[in-house]
Specification:
The structure holds two protein chains of two kinds. Chain A is mostly helical. Chain A has one domain. Chain A is built from nine helices and no strands. By secondary structure, chain B is of the alpha/beta class. Chain B folds into two domains: 214 residues, P-loop containing nucleotide triphosphate hydrolases (Rossmann fold, 3-Layer(aba) Sandwich), CATH 3.40.50.300; 63 residues, 2-Layer Sandwich (Alpha-Beta Plaits). Chain B is built from eleven helices and 13 strands. The longest helix of chain B has 16 residues. Classes of the chains: A mainly alpha, B alpha/beta. The interface between A and B is medium-sized, with 16 and 22 residues.
Chain lengths: 227, 300
């Protein structure tokens, strides 16, 4: 279903690929690195995770609720745990495709990948839970059109405040403190740390990721209305 | 054990009481129509049986099970046709049927089902481009794909053209013949009259009448019904025909007298003297619509 919606392919693959390629070749961002791609590759991977787990999931679920699909499913033997498992599998599958597309492109652009892929994987899983919680909180409480607007707005905000294409160090200090408490910056910090040789993941990033991974799905579960 | 059993059911939303002490049963192989105006509590009753709503009071049982506590078991054995929606706009009928079939252990064959509801020609058309009637027929097919023992059909023919409606009636009759318990809600009287073994008329959350269509219609046999301009002088007419006359709806009258030629002649003569047109005339048997309107007419 995801690949049949053109707009979600644009969101989950098109935009990350474009950002990665454009800013790697056109060195206008203050990345502070000799090769912008070394900063951008982990950042864009973080963006890709956010687009799938929060925006893609949120909007799709919001419309499923509006179309009555969720209500319809409610009287079939497909239980809620199975539905949730299916959605989780779908997200992880899309993320796998994103990694499979973005990593070779980044490497072709000269990315010096290093560090610890297992740490990166843990960070991605935690962030996915947090973003999915945010997406489902919106989907379960707002009208589908509002979810569409809110999710895209949040996406843009977190893209700018997430240290994904603009380094956090370039933000004013007050804003930077706020940004660091958000899951987007925590994920990109974690990926920047995990995927570069000689760097490490700041403990604060783990803490923030963990907090969102627990809190956001809980809020979603409590507030979700099925119709 | 009845397939569906509702006992003193009460459903409240905040301050509104949608269902206020409703009791009825439906057996296997029986088709019962819940009939009532919009807001009478039909959908609330059905949705409680389907497990969507919690009863504020009383009991709802499906196949002897609690629709909420035993939801997993109930979901396997019932089929639900919603009033609208419930399908992804880009999904095609055959695809939707195959997907839903996969949720059940022993589903019906999606291809056969598609033929049965007459959607073969649009098997590959996205849901959003189907006509309203086609969407309804797909919704019915989705309700039947799990080979349910109990089928809940909420306003199944709303918005259907007459041909599609007849197709749906045929499918519903086959269901009942196959031993399925069918509970349908409708506000089409013709539908209830033709399909239902029993009709339960609800209004303001309460049952106002219950019985076979024949029993309900036999209730007030001694009457003559006619249509004329609104607000005729009913007292004068009543004196002439020797029985009570009431205006059941603007311009529609019921005279409580035996349906004899003499009484009919008295009414038409009275109208003729006043030069009033006669639009309709029926002596004797009432239709379900007459019963329905009489029972659900607002006090206002």
């Amino acid at each position: 279903m995801t690949l049949r919606r053109g707009e979600s392919v644009l969101l989950t693959l098109g935009i990350p690929v474009m950002l990665l390629v454009f800013f790697s070749l056109v060195d206008v961002l203050p990345t502070g690195r000799k090769h912008p791609v070394d900063f951008l590759a982990p950042g864009v991977l973080a963006l890709a995770v956010m687009s799938t787990a929060m925006v893609g999931l949120g909007i799709a679920t919001g419309f499923e609720r509006q179309y009555g699909v969720l209500k319809r499913l409610g009287t079939t033997p497909l239980g809620r745990p199975t539905l949730l498992a299916a959605k989780t599998t779908a997200i992880l599958a899309v993320e796998l495709v994103q990694v499979a597309v973005l990593v070779p492109i980044a490497l072709a652009l000269g990315w010096h990948a290093g560090g610890n892929a297992a740490l990166a994987l843990v960070a991605v899983l935690l962030a996915t839970a947090g973003f999915a919680g945010l997406g489902l909180t919106m989907a379960g409480t707002l009208r589908a059109e509002t979810v569409l607007a809110a999710a895209n707005g949040l996406y843009l905000l977190l893209l700018l405040l997430g240290g994904m294409v603009v380094p956090l160090s370039k933000l004013p200090s007050g804003l930077r403190a706020v940004a660091r408490a958000l899951p987007a910056a925590a994920l990109s910090d974690a990926l920047h740390g995990a995927l570069a040789a000689g760097h490490h993941v700041p403990g604060r990033a783990w803490l923030v990721l963990l907090a969102w991974a627990v809190a956001a799905p809980l809020v979603a579960a409590v507030t979700f209305r099925w119709e | 054990m009845p397939a569906v059993e509702v006992t003193d059911l009460v459903v409240r939303y905040d301050t509104v009481t949608a269902v206020d002490g409703v009791s009825f049963t439906v057996d296997a192989g029986e088709l019962v129509a819940l009939l009532g105006p919009n807001g009478a509590g039909k959908t609330s009753t059905v949705e409680t049986l389907e497990g969507y709503r919690v009863a504020s009071g009383g009991r709802a049982r499906v196949l002897g099970l609690d629709p909420r506590r035993d939801h997993a078991e109930v979901a396997r054995r019932i089929g639900v046709m919603l009033q609208r929606g419930g399908v992804y706009p880009v999904m095609r009928p055959l695809e939707a049927l195959r997907l839903f079939a996969a949720y059940y252990d022993e589903p019906a064959d999606p291809d056969q089902l598609l033929d049965r509801v007459g959607l073969r020609g649009v098997a590959g058309t996205p849901y959003r481009r189907l006509s309203g009637g086609e969407q309804q027929r797909l919704s019915l097919a989705l309700a039947l794909v799990g080979r349910p023992e109990v089928a809940f059909l909420d306003e199944p023919t709303a918005g259907m053209d007459p041909a599609a409606r007849r197709t749906l009636w045929d499918v519903v009759r086959e269901l009942r013949a196959g031993g399925v318990c069918v509970l349908l809600t409708t506000h089409y009287l013709e539908e209830a009259e033709r399909l239902a073994d029993r009709v339960v008329i609800v209004d303001h959350g309460r049952i106002v009448a219950e019985g076979t269509p024949a029993e309900l219609m036999a209730g007030g046999g001694d009457e003559v019904r006619f249509a004329a301009p609104p607000h005729v002088d009913m007292a004068a007419l009543a004196e002439r025909v020797g029985g009570a006359v009431e205006e059941v709806a603007p311009g529609e009258y019921r005279a409580g007298v035996a349906p004899t030629p003499a009484n009919v002649a008295a009414i038409t003569a009275w109208l003729a003297e006043r030069d009033l047109p006669l639009a309709d005339l029926r002596a004797g048997r009432q239709t379900l619509e007459d019963v329905f309107l009489r029972l659900t007419r607002d006090e206002a």
